[in-house]
Amino acid sequence: MKIKTAFFCQHCGYESAKWTGKCPSCGQWNTFVEEKVQKDIPLRNISWQEEKENTRSNNIVNLSDVSGIEEERLLTPDGELNRVLGGGIVPGSLVLVGGEPGIGKSTLFLQNALMLKDITTLYISGEESAQQIKMRADRLQIKNDNFFLLTETSTQTIFQEIKKLRPQLVIIDSIQTLQSPLIESAPGSVSQIRETAAEMQRFAKESHTPVFLIGHITKDGSIAGPKILEHMVDTVLQFEGDQHYAYRILRTIKNRFGSTAELGIYEMTGQGLRQVTNPSEILISQREDMLSGVAIASTMEGMRPMLVEVQALVTQSVYGTPQRTVTGFDLRRLQLLLAVLEKRGGFHFGMKDVFLNIAGGIRVEDPSIDLSVLCALLSSYEDIAIGSNICFAGEVGLSGEIRAVNRIEQRIAEAEKLGFEKIFISRYNKKGVDFSKFNIEVIAVGRVDEVYKGLF
Ligand code: TYD
Ligand code: MG
């Protein structure tokens, strides 16, 4: 029998009969790889339940007849995970969890599965042996008699086992190791990932069993495999952090059942991941006297206020081209802020090297961190330390204006709670807020030069 092949864009999953240099769908170059596909073989028992296949009704329903009662979510003992999922696990949902190798994905889900003692969990691993997983479970020191392990990669066998066990939660580590007998190509290829994810999705929806798919991430930060994988699932979570730090962040990238602004914070310890319920305390380094180039930002990640330390170093450039290096912050955003300081503040960064770092190895997306980045830069530029009792919350506009940010009261309250005595905010944030209830001094500023005068 001649084996059918097709070409797949490794970036977006576009399928083509012949090789093309540029993908007509996503515009990427040189992304087509030939994969063996075999669609017409009479293997139809891949679905987890054959009987279901025929009885599935596609009838039109009146929306008002559909019961709107939200199905009860499964709450895990892990508050951070519940938070990023939008309030617990939704029955029948398919969740993709991405992250770099070694960041702790397997640990996080093994730990959660072991902690869920009241439901039957099936952990399917195609990456590690049962012994390896047992060793990790011993390290986590959690005992659970309802936890089952399957080291298997064929979806056909997996569904056979699922039919026997009837688990209430399925975790797959990882989607890149799964193999459907319907597709010829190797595990991890676009066509395999697409097919196996579709099979898992059918299973999740028909059986109302939540399924977590763990996936690896490529160097450019996207989940290895086609972009369509992200479209197929209900929720995409990303587990990230700097390998050299103990802190890990679980971020929601997409969520059909909740907000994408949420984030969970963990610390990797000798006994697995520990939930960090008060992030501010760990993200600000404890020190007696402040050094120049350090500024504290009162940021919000989702619904949660979080104080973050920004560190800047501005030095005379030794080489012809000045360097700009960032960790945890967007490089283009830094360049923009430097341009604002140059043009609106008259500071000369042109011949200076600039290094910027968000302490703790986390990445902050809240634009309210701008003002503290700007102040950290100024503080290092002038070599004058900012008092350790001062923090900031404001976005910086192109004309040098300090713009208002959302949830200002929560940010101020958090700063006050952590013992700060002064907070710089935008004067556009003053409207409708009663500042007299705070003990912390609120300094409202409108422009970059006002901040400078207020600080130094
Ligand atoms: P792992 O979950 O295997 O990462 P992933 O599945 O994302 O590839 O975790 C990898 C790291 O976590 C590994 O370097 C060891 C470390 N680790 C701890 O520090 N403490 C622990 O309790 C465990 C289980 C792992
Ligand atoms: Mg792993």
Automatic annotation (TrEMBL):
Residue stretches making up the RecA family profile domain: 70-217
Chain span(s) of sequence motif RadA KNRFG motif: 254-258
Organism whose genome encodes this protein: Chitinophaga oryziterrae
Role: DNA-dependent ATPase involved in processing of recombination intermediates, plays a role in repairing DNA breaks. Stimulates the branch migration of RecA-mediated strand transfer reactions, allowing the 3' invading strand to extend heteroduplex DNA faster. Binds ssDNA in the presence of ADP but not other nucleotides, has ATPase activity that is stimulated by ssDNA and various branched DNA structures, but inhibited by SSB. Does not have RecA's homology-searching function.
GO MF term set: ATP binding; ATP-dependent DNA damage sensor activity; damaged DNA binding; hydrolase activity; zinc ion binding
Key words of the record: ATP-binding, DNA damage, DNA repair, DNA-binding, Hydrolase, Metal-binding, Nucleotide-binding, Stress response, Zinc, Zinc-finger
Pfam families: AAA_25, ChlI, Zn_ribbon_LapB
Mitochondrion recorded as keyword: no
Name of this protein: DNA repair protein RadA
Region of interest (Lon-protease-like), ranges: 353-456
NCBIfam families, per the entry: sms (TIGR00416)
Positions of ATP binding: 99-106
Family: Belongs to the RecA family. RadA subfamily.
Entry GO terms, CC: cytosol
GO biological process: recombinational repair
Organism lineage: Bacteria, Pseudomonadati, Bacteroidota, Chitinophagia, Chitinophagales
UniProt superkingdom: Bacteria
Domain characteristics, as noted in the entry: The middle region has homology to RecA with ATPase motifs including the RadA KNRFG motif, while the C-terminus is homologous to Lon protease.
